[in-house]
Amino acid sequence: MRRKGEHHTAEGALVIPTIRSRPLSAARLRGYLWQALALLLVLAFLAFIARNAAINMARLNINTGFGFLTRPAGFAIAQHFISYDEASSYFVAFFVALLNTVIIAAVAIVCATMLGFVIGLARLSSNRLVAATAGAYVDLIRNVPLLLQLFYWYFAVLRPLPGPRQSLDLLHLHIAFLNARGLFVPAPMFEPGSGAVLLALLVALALFSLLWRWARGRREIAGRTPRAAWIALASLLFAFLAIAAAEGWPLRWEVPVLAGFNFRGGLVLSPEFVAMSVALSLYGAAYIAEIVRAGVAAVPVGQSEAARALGMGPLLVARKVIVPQALRIILPPLAGQYILLTKNTTLAAAIAYPDLMLIFGGTVLNQTGQPLEVMIITIGTYLALSFAIAAAMNAANRRLRRTGTPRR
Amino acid sequence: MRQAGPYSGRVGALRRFLGSCVATPLNLALTVLVLLLIVAIVPALVEWAVVDAAWRGTSSADCPNRDAACWVFVRLRFGQILYGGYPAAERWRVDLAAALALAGLVLMAAPRLPRTLIAALLFVAGPVIAAILLAGGIFGLARVPSRDWGGLTLTLVVALGTIAFAIPLGLGLAIARRSALPVIRWLAVAFIELWRGVPLIPVLFMAVIMFPLFMPAGVEVDTLIRVLVAFILFNAASMAEVFRGGFQAIPQSQYEAAASLGLGPWRTLGLVVLPQVVKVAIPGLVNTCVSVTKETTVILILGLADLLAVIQAGAADPAWLVGDQIRSTGYFFAGLVFWSVCFSMSRAARRLERRRRRDDAAPLIASR
Fold it and tell me: Is A322:A299 a contact under the CB 8 Å cutoff?
């Protein structure tokens, strides 16, 4: 290949420039020109769009700026976990909607991970019927659009359910009921004195983790868990129970009870919330199952064979040999899956679950008539959520690589 | 235990399968559990979809059973499901476009034909011919506005249109990302990462609601084209990531070998690197095509009448408000259509991936 700047003199002698004296060769000049051209084109395109937007917004008398955020929103949001009413500002509405998005994403991520691990391991089962059934689940769920699955759960399963008086008593335990108005589950109740019990719980947990670390250290030195650790643990539990009893068990579950035409008490999860959680969890689980299967299958068979040859039992092999190695392979694609699940929560707009997309990209955009600002906020928030998940998973990944095994 | 012989026929496979189900007490318990699950689901499903289902009839009155599929609904609305609002007299054009696309795919799969040429034909001439056939307005074809397109036709238009443009654009982005020129590289990275960090639905909302804001006054672009552009840009970023994986699989020695043969950067790319990149990337590209096909359903949120939207509208039609069996049947049918398309693509991707791994594992002389 010809070096840059290589050329022949008039007499035919070959001149090869040394690296120190790099003149502006034709190739480098061409490179600069291309880059300048690309940058110019992109800037021109952005300027074109910005100019059009400015002209159009002036022509259509569209307000600009983020001043609308402090004005009252004037619409109701069916599901709000922080205090919100029609007099609340758009700013508060943003947090209500964001919280709804985060909650549905969190529920979906947790459920999909648990189900996905079970199905992924089932696919590796030595029982071929179990493996084939898990494979059929993955092949079924992954090849049907998520929106169709969401519609199925919402319009074909949850909406046609009978009213409260004929509601389904889940597992026949008389504590959770499913009907056309949603899922009624027990709600935690905080009576006076529950503050003290919660405090006691926190202190107990902190002491527990300290105790656990100490016992772990002792075990690594002495080879067995000291008996004192068990005694300390038992007395910790006893102390917590004693405090709770002394306060008269102020922490309780409030079970929903049928009263008249509807349930009273407990926590109501709307059909939209239930449909979103079920559809996203089942869908995500199929993908996570594949990630888990691939991760575990990537650990060489020789690893578990060697561990078995050392006399380790199958559970110990799984915990100490396979899981630490498989997790390193699983974690990066799992992070991608979590981001995808979070992005997929925007499908809520199709069944009117009040998430960020529906509230901001829909209602707020229509009410304020300021599409530019509203969409910047909406898309920026989703970008931030994606980056937050990526950062959290990267941190977990670094920790995993450093310690080799996830510490409790 | 009997020693397994070197040859294992079908009986042996069946015996191994059954043997694995009862090998240990735990396996036996799991087998019973899974069998119970299968017995609970499969017969009920067959009963719902086949045995009790209403197959013959002319109206919703022929589907009285709320606990059985109503195939009458799908049969009577089949024209809607396939073509949406496309005028009945012009539907042959859709059929012709579909037949041409199918013929192209068959040619692609045929051995001993110049695949590159056919691929170029499919990717360049295909969209043009399809657009002329479907939209009309020239060559004496009556004009059919895109708001009349619907059903499976629209789903395929969006899916295939996205795939046809997103793959070349993705390849371009992936090449730009590896450019020696920093500005080109940064622009490509910024473009790819921006699209990949954002969910599809806000992007589509932007395309539909805000596009007019960004255009000079008086310029109007068809909604379907706006949606297509958003789909293409969004998925080009995904395709670029797949190609990037392909580029990373090429060892440095390939570039050095090309340089030692005196090939310049573009010829190295075209003659040495790209053929290998494409081979590595194809399974991932097919998988991305599966997601594109599934994603097309979200266009119903924007008011376009795709396959799922036509079924939603049909189930809400007062003439069919006899019960939830109509809706369930519609979903079941749509699910079947998507599943067969996506499942065959997924399987093809898996097969290509396996073949590539086998080829890579084989000695160099044997493979060429």
Answer: yes
pLDDT, mean of residues A277-284: 95
Q: What is the pLDDT of residue A8?
A: 64
Q: Measured at the alpha carbon of residue A337, what is the angle toward residues A332 and A341, in degrees to the nearest 5?
A: 150
Strands A251-254 and A14-15: unpaired
A371 shares contact with chain B (CB less than 8 Å): yes
Provide the terminal-to-terminal Cα distance of chain A, rounded to the nearest Å. Answer: 57
User: B311 to chain A, minimum CA–CA distance in Å?
Assistant: 11
Q: How far apart are CA B259 and CA B256, in angstroms?
A: 5
A139: nearest CA partner in chain B: B343
Statement: residue B266 has pLDDT above 70: yes
Q: Does B335 touch chain A (CB under 8 A)?
A: yes
| A102 Ramachandran zone, left/alpha/beta (phi>0; psi -120 to 50) | alpha
Q: Which of A125-139, A170-184, A243-257, B131-145 has the highest mean pLDDT?
A: A125-139
Q: What is the pTM of this model?
A: 0.84
B 26-55 near A (Cβ less than 8 A): 27, 30-31, 34-35, 37-38
- Region A41-47: what's the mean pLDDT? 92
Mapping DSSP to helix (H, G, I), strand (E, B) and coil, where does residue B4 land?
Answer: coil
| pLDDT tens figures, A224-237 | 777 777 888 888 88
Helix axes B324-361, B307-316, angle to 10 degrees: 160
* Contact (Cβ atoms closer than 8 angstroms) between residue B243 and residue B277: yes
Residue A360 identity (one-letter amino acid):
F
The CA distance from B231 to the nearest CA of chain A, in Å, is: 15
pLDDT for the residue A114: 95
Q: Please give the Cα distance from B202 to A386 (Å, whole number).
A: 14
Closest to B80 measured CA to CA, from B291, B269, B330, B290: B330
Residue whose token pair is 């899922």? A183
pLDDT, mean of residues A148-172: 84
Judge whether residue A361 has pLDDT over 70. Answer: yes
Q: How far apart are CA A396 and CA A398, in angstroms?
A: 6
Q: Which residues of A touch B267 (CB under 8 A)?
A: none
Are A38 and B184 a contacting pair at CB < 8 A?
yes
- Inter-chain CB proximity B343 and A143 less than 8 Å: yes
Of the partner residues B37, B212, B259, the one whose CB lies closest to the CB of residue A1: B259
Range in A27-36, A85-94, B337-346, B359-368 the model is least confident about: B359-368
Q: Please report, rounded to a whole number, the percentage of residues in chain A having pLDDT higher than 90.
A: 25
Residue type, A396: A
DSSP secondary structure letter of residue B63: -
- Judge whether A133 is closer than 8 Å to chain B, CB to CB: yes
